[in-house]
Amino acid sequence: MLESYFNAIEKVLLAQGNASSVAGHPNLKGGPKEWFVRNFLEDHLPSTVRVGQGEIIDGRSKPNQKRNQVDVILYRDGFPKIVYAENCSAFLRESIIATIEVKSTINLDKFRKACTVSIKHKNRRYIQHPDPRRPLDPVGVIEDLTTPIISSYIVAFDGPIQISTVANWLPKIRLEFGITADKLVDMMVILGKGVIWRIESFPQLGGRSILSKNPEATWAYLEQTDKNLLLLFLHLLSQMTSSSLIPIDILGYAKNVSFSKVIAIK
Fold it and tell me: Which of 34, 186, 229, 263 has a C-alpha 20 to 30 A away from that of 163?
């Protein structure tokens, strides 16, 4: 059922994106697509997850400090936020579940910029905790303690003809930046063309099987015209099950879905 449903939604999003592409100004072409994705998320994600747009702050953020604006931020319900204007807020780092960059068309330059933002957000790991060296001081901020992991995504409405072209950008960017794969985007979807994901971030989708055949693989991709939005939905849910009272059987919802050949890359 989910396969048929999300395939229909994927077609609707593509049609809406094509309709907005006739606009004469770049901002009008990109804005509607972000609106479509945000409303798709709001309609389908748990009520404990909120959808916003703006920037991410932590205990070290300062006024007028340069920060990246994120197209879509998924954050935990119940956390405060700083509202600058309508549809533009600052969100506490501890509340963030995921970030999504939405692109009308993806190319290497846009992909590199999105990865740069992902690295910044994933590298900032702070948590409120008493400092044992100063037990009488107020609670402060200590670096390098584990906070909830931020997942990062890219959703594009168009891109290179072959999804393999985009997939091979990942090892190139990792080498260029000299960072580990987990700092880059966890999943990238090009609607109507395919999907790429970091294997360790989505073990429910044949991770064990992929690694048994390709033990050095880091990413996997599928070149397909549909089921891409379904995989985005399942990947998002997999990042939220840790806080769910009843774990979601991600594998159960995906096991009866037929996919084209999964390609693994280092």
Answer: 34
